[in-house]
Fold:
Amino acid sequence: MNFLISGTHISPVYLIVVGFIIGICGGFFGVGGSFLAGPALFAVGVPMNFVVGTDLAHIVGKSIVAAKRHRVLGNVDIKLGLIMVIGTIAGVETGAQIIQQLKRRANVDFVVAIAFIIVLVSISAFIGWESWQTMKMRKPPKSSSSKKPKQDASAIAYVAKNIQRFQLPPMISLPNSGIKEISLWTIIVVAYVGGVFSGFLGGGAGYIRMPAMVYLLGVPTHVAVGTDLFEVVISASYGTFTHALKGNVDILIALVMHTGAAIGAQIGATLTQYFHGARIRLLFVPLPLIGAGLIIYTLLTGHAMK
Amino acid sequence: MAGRPQKTASIGSFLVELIVYAVFVFAYFFLVLHFLGGWVKHLFDANRTLYAVVALGLIITQGVALEALTTALLRLIRRLGVR
Structure:
């Protein structure tokens, strides 16, 4: 199939399969999947500027499907998501400014790649350790009927409890996330840091925001996944529009990829019902490592990824 | 063991949904994307702002439409009691 805007020829079956795999990851873990979609598009000859913009457009469509599914399951905290959008957009702009500064002073691709590897491996190691500790401390349920997958537990729940004690007005409550009281500024700072990583490293940075919501804000894993997807719909729409203005979006590629992602996202979102929070987090561990592996491969072989 | 028939039903429903969905997608490529391609390319070259609006509108519309389609298919398959 010819895609006239980016001037590429790609099999639609390839795009649907890639979209399907990323859709499952997105629906299950609440991540955009840029670390998989980017290299997959680049590998079939899509120019890098189109990879970044087109991936964002595809993320919008996929996240709508998954977020709507999560909303039906009661996993979306709209109030939290809307507050986080403010911090995320401010953070994305800061991250983009850091990139501009690095472009003037250093080898930006190398610095970003090394930072990306350190962040991804650290997240993977930490979540792996934490979810393993949490699963060890959980008592096995007496019967299958007593299982309540949305009840969340964490070996480091005290971190979120201490952060929630930070009293800087205005204080708000998030009943959908089971948080009685938390400072608005805490949420904005957490979202801002996620946004900085998104602007600095590219993609939606769901691999940072989802764990940050769980460990720092104390949001249950299922709600963190659904709320992150809801927030991604808004922030990725903003990114798609600005990239489309710059001529970096081949919308036809995004539409074809999304047909596979739509069904994958439904499956991924539905699957979260059958897993406890700690197990979802443990299954999340290989994802950042795959991304880190792709960057190491790129550095060693010399193929540009940005 | 009580979970086994439910699991079989889910896999059956999923396979039927996948086949029906594949037919829809096949028709979608040849009817919509074939005719849309030239117009969108023209818009990309002629008016970038309008292209940005249309691109965002298309992906959001497709997101909502496919979500509705997959949900309706699942509901229909469950109502028909496919195993």
In short: The beta strands of chain A are 2-3, 8-9, 171-174, 179-183.
